[in-house]
Structure formats: structure tokens, C-alpha cells
Specification:
Layout (H helix, E strand, L loop, with lengths): L5 H85 L3 H5 L2
């Protein structure tokens, strides 16, 4: 019985290995593309969330500024009224305070 030529058995193995390497390369490339796409989506979402956060912070700061202004006005009004009352009490003319 003749001994088979070793190149006859090695060649199909080489072809099979090359095909498997091509498959693995294709799978790895697809996986890499998926990772790149997912990274892009996450970066876009992060930018969007940051923009939402910045908008929210700006709105809160605006409202706080408005509240601080209103509070200052109310304190000034209260001080003014307290001074009027103090003056009226000192002058014994509560009617003057009530009609001011």
C-alpha cells in the first residue's frame, strides 16, 4: 500500500486553517465595528445628557437669582415697615402708621 504524500494531507489543513482565520478576522472586524458604533452612541448620549444638565442648571440659577431679588425686596419692605412702626410707636401715633 503506497504511503500518501504528506503535501496531500497538509494542503487541505492549510486551507481549512486559512478559512477559519478569515472567519475569525471577519467576526473580529464586525465586533470592532459594533464597539465603535456603541461608543459613538454612548458619546452622543453623554453629550445630550450634559446639554440637558447644563440647561437645567442654567434654569435653576436663573430662578435662584429671581428668588434672591424677590427676597431682597421683601426684606427691604419689611425693614421699611418696621422703621415706620418704630417711628410711630416712638411718636405715639399708631394711626399715622396704619394710614401710611
Amino acid at each position: 500500500q503506497p504511503v500518501p504524500d504528506s503535501s496531500d494531507t497538509i494542503q487541505p489543513i492549510k486551507v481549512d486553517i486559512l478559512e477559519k482565520l478569515e472567519e475569525l478576522t471577519s467576526v473580529a472586524t464586525k465586533a470592532q465595528n459594533n464597539v465603535v458604533d456603541a461608543t459613538r452612541v454612548l458619546q452622543d448620549q453623554a453629550r445630550s445628557k450634559q446639554a440637558e444638565k447644563d440647561c437645567f442648571v442654567a434654569e435653576v440659577e436663573k430662578q435662584l437669582h429671581t428668588l434672591a431679588h424677590i427676597l431682597r425686596e421683601e426684606v427691604q419692605r419689611g425693614v421699611k415697615n418696621a422703621l415706620k412702626l418704630d417711628s410711630a410707636v416712638n411718636n405715639h401715633s399708631i394711626e399715622t402708621y396704619l394710614h401710611s
